[in-house]
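thoughts on these tokens:
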Amino acid sequence: MPFFLRFRSVLLAEFVYILLLLPLPWLLSWQQMRWLFSEQGPFEVLSAVLWVVLGVFCLLSAKLGPRRLISCGLASFAAFARELDLHTAITGMSIFKSHYYLKTPAPIAQKLLVGALALAILALLIDVLAAGLRALRQDGLQQDWMCSALLGVVTTAATKGLDKVEAFTHDFTGHQLPQIWGLVVAALEEGVEM
């Protein structure tokens, strides 16, 4: 059965959800919008909770399913940590930026330990990506987990692209987009991420 027919209920749910997010900037005040989609707001907190739920689900399913679900579960826990900004908790800046390793006066032992952690997370993400590419090459979009992952990647990339439009417009034209644009993008980016 083709991807769109088999996965149509998920695609329809995603579309309806996005349609529900779009009017929020016009229905809520600026302060309500900032709180709703802030780092401590319900969308951000629920995103972290859902990453943990996905991780647990993947690890429990790995007993019955393929080994790649272990990597997916661990990657979900890494995404949970990222959602809570734990990638900056030890160092005060992202452990994935070269600036920390090259320009900060942190002790070398700390840099090595944090670097090993960053490399382990990167290796985990590469393993998940490789599993996804193998599954895509072997079965195409016949596996539901692959369809879900592809939907997540496409929608996240689209909302991140929308987020960059504001800076791109300012850099190349010198004009600021209306404030409502930023609120719509915040609703879509954080809402779809959740």
User: Anything to note?
Assistant: Residues 87 and 94 are 5 Å apart (CA to CA). The chain is about 75% helix and 0% strand. The mean pLDDT is 83.
